[in-house]
Amino acid sequence: MKIIQIGVGGFGQSWLNTIAKSDVAEMVALVDLSEDALTAACEEHGWRSEMCYTDLTEALASTDADLAVVVTPPAFHRGPVIQAMEAGLDVLSEKPMAESPEDCRAMMQAAADLGRTYTVSQNYRYNPAIYTMARVIQEGLIGEVGQVKIDFYKGVDFGGGFRHEMDNPVLVDMSIHHFDMIRFITGLNPETARGSAWNPSWSNYAGDCSSSILFTMKGGARILYNASWCAKGDFCDWNGHWQIEGEKGTLIYDKDVVTHIPIDGLYKPGEPVTLELDTMEKMGQVWVLNNLIECRASGAAPQTVCTDNIQSIAMVFAAVEAVESGKVVPVAV
Ligand SMILES: NC(=O)c1ccc[n+]([C@@H]2O[C@H](COP(=O)([O-])OP(=O)(O)OC[C@H]3O[C@@H](n4cnc5c(N)ncnc54)[C@H](O)[C@@H]3O)[C@@H](O)[C@H]2O)c1
């Protein structure tokens, strides 16, 4: 698989490493508006400067690639994603798919019209603890899921950049991981969102950096999601702290440990059991990249192809509308 990567600064460096180390993918071009970012990428990985472009049109015309990996800020996904598909490439973009429903619809429409596969990377899914929870819930260990509480509290300073300027930095740039994991782990899809967002006096973010969202899922289960990037303390890992309650028991996720609490009768907790986690040969971005290549060969749809991922990003847009309007908002794009 020959790859053009668009956006090589920031998190783009993580994709550069993944692709450089891959034995099934080959980097053929790098595109970034920043000459410095391109130079640093070449120095780090020993790539030739002839592979670097500041103009995507020129890069697409000069190289023969199969896949574009787009790692630009979310507001700048739409342009390169559609342009690469128009040039005949499949596309993998970073999460979140976009900052607006209009951009999401435009990219999905382009993929459908052009017959290309556009996938959004949700690397947080591909982790042994997350896979284990999804599997045991599917196998019925805790029965029907009725309520879930997720607490994501971290104090994070990016030292500037787009996140510090966004209206709802955590909901738009971070919570997409957790919302996508909610769907993946519980197997439930969302119906409505309500909530509130605020910005504590000490926050160094322009937008509201703390929020509490209540999702009603199809079938009636409720998900209470609390998140902050300006917490005074590092209370959880990047996945958050999860309590998933079903009719037969509870699963707790905390810092890569999954605990099962069986319930005896109606409410009596049994002895907690630490679950042995599934083993995974590939995780995170490596899983995403390899799965894309396998799907391209088999014709199967990747797990987080845009037509699926739209349901995760729809939770973000509904949460934002809910906190801004104070209303109960249907989750739909
Ligand atoms: N999956 C994860 O765990 C994870 C972690 C961090 C960031 N991200 C995502 O990665 C994406 C990029 O975030 P970041 O933190 O790397 O941002 P960043 O601002 O640090 O870097 C973005 C890079 O893209 C370049 N760029 C901007 N517009 C461009 C354009 N039109 N064409 C070419 N290059 C362009 C910039 O020059 C810069 O080098 C976002 O969607 C973000 O949400 C994902």
Question: What report would you give on this structure?
Answer:
There is one protein chain. The protein has 333 residues and is α/β, with parallel strands linked by helices. It folds into two domains: 120 residues, 3-Layer(aba) Sandwich (Rossmann fold); 175 residues, Dihydrodipicolinate Reductase, domain 2 (2-Layer Sandwich). Strands 7, 8, 9, 10, 11, 12, 13, 14, 15 and 16 form a ten-stranded mixed sheet that branches. The chain has a six-stranded parallel sheet with strand order 3-2-1-4-5-6, sandwiched between helices. Helix 5 links the parallel strand 5 and strand 6.
Shape: globular
Q: Catalogue the unreliable spans.
A: none
Overall mean pLDDT stands at 97
CATH homologous superfamily title of the largest domain: Dihydrodipicolinate Reductase, domain 2
Helices and strands, in order, run as EHEHEHEHEHEHEHEEEEEEEEHHE
Number of helices: 9
Bound molecules: nicotinamide-adenine-dinucleotide
Q: Which CATH top level class of the largest domain fits?
A: Alpha Beta
Query: Structural class given helices, strands, pairing?
Result: alpha/beta
Largest sheet: 10 strands, mixed
Query: What's the CATH topology name of the largest domain?
Result: Dihydrodipicolinate Reductase, domain 2
Task: Kindly give the count of domains.
Answer: 2
Rg, Å, rounded: 20 Å
Assign a percent range to the helix content: 25-40%
How many strand units?
Answer: 16
In CATH terms, what is the architecture of the largest domain? 2-Layer Sandwich
Strand content: 25-35%
| CA(first)-CA(last) distance | 32 Å
